[in-house]
């Protein structure tokens, strides 16, 4: 039997998309209607946001670790977090975690390398794009990256935190991402990381103007492969 996947959730929309991806894609590998056992734990998003706003990464890590222990207690075998931003706290979590984790940026970087991308644009919350979460994983595979400009970071962050995490999808937001991605393409990027798990609700290969690296679905597929392989 596949292993039990534990989802350490932060925002509802990203966690829901990750969960749905596992459930919808598993039958192609396992048979009709079959998917691994999946459990999700999420504290209030406000608990995370308060810690993010004061750059309290150990505090973010404690929330993640609490979810990890609760998921381990109900039988999860491996953990994923469908939230790019809070991966910045994983160094505080992994040494004390009861279970192994798949790292979203490492999954995305590995996929980017397999597809032969050489320079990718980064999108996500301001906490993510200011961090080394993606630069470290991309650089380890020889892939260059481009962060958004400061005004672009502010615009992306507002769209994510005010709209996407609340399930609000606006044409103006799509246009904003398309404009930013077009600028990245003009600056030499050959792909773009959708580095917030809600961004794929707005942007994909059909409307981005560049090949997309959908962190949500790539993590879900990696978790599915890991659950089946072990």
Summarize this structure briefly:
The chain is an alpha/beta fold and 230 residues long. It is built from 11 helices and 8 strands. The strands form 2 sheets. Strands 2-1-3-4 form a 4-stranded parallel sheet, sandwiched between helices. A 4-stranded parallel sheet has the order 6-5-7-8, sandwiched between helices.
Key terms:
four-stranded parallel sheet; Rossmann fold; globular; 8 strands; 230 residues; alpha/beta
Give the secondary structure arrangement, pairings included.
Elements: E1 5-8, H1 12-25, H2 27-30, E2 38-41, H3 45-53, H4 57-73, E3 78-80, H5 90-93, E4 100-101, H6 104-114, E5 119-123, H7 126-129, H8 133-139, E6 144-146, H9 150-163, H10 171-186, E7 191-194, E8 212-214, H11 215-229
Parallel strand pairs: 1-2, 1-3, 3-4, 5-6, 5-7, 7-8
Helix pairs in contact: 1-11, 3-4, 6-8, 6-11, 9-10
Explained architecture:
There is one protein chain. This protein has about 230 residues and is an alpha/beta fold. The chain has 2 domains: about 5-105 and about 220-230, Rossmann fold (3-Layer(aba) Sandwich), CATH 3.40.50.1860; about 105-215, Rossmann fold (3-Layer(aba) Sandwich), CATH 3.40.50.1860. About 50% of the residues lie in helices and about 10% in strands. A 4-stranded parallel sheet has the order 2-1-3-4, with helices on both faces.
State the name of the first-level CATH class of the largest domain: Alpha Beta
Q: What's the SSE pattern?
A: EHHEHHEHEHEHHEHHEEH
Q: Which whole number gives the mean pLDDT?
A: 97
Rounded to the nearest angstrom, the radius of gyration is 17 Å
DSSP helix count? Answer: 11
Report, as a whole number of angstroms, the end-to-end distance: 9 Å
- Which term fits the overall shape? globular
């Amino acid at each position: 039997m596949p292993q039990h996947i534990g989802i350490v959730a932060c925002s509802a929309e990203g966690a829901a998309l990750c969960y749905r991806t596992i459930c919808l894609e598993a039958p192609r590998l396992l048979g009709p209607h079959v998917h691994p056992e999946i459990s999700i734990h999420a504290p209030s998003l406000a608990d995370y946001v308060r810690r993010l706003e004061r750059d309290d990464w150990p505090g973010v890590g404690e929330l993640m670790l609490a979810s990890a222990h609760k998921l381990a207690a109900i039988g999860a075998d491996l953990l994923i977090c469908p939230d790019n931003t809070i991966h910045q706290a994983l160094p505080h979590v992994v040494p004390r975690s009861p279970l192994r984790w798949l790292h979203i940026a490492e999954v995305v970087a590995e996929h980017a390398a397999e597809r032969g991308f050489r320079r990718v644009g980064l999108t996500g919350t301001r906490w993510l794009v200011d961090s080394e979460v993606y630069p470290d994983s991309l650089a380890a595979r020889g892939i260059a990256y481009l962060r958004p400009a400061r005004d672009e970071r502010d615009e992306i962050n507002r769209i994510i935190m005010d709209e996407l995490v609340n399930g609000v999808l606006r044409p103006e937001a799509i246009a904003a991402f398309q404009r930013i991605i077009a600028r990245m393409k003009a600056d030499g990027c050959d792909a773009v990381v959708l580095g917030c798990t809600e961004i794929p609700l707005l942007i994909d290969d059909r409307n981005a103007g560049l090949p997309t690296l959908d962190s949500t679905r790539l993590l879900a597929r990696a978790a599915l492969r890991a659950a089946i392989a072990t």
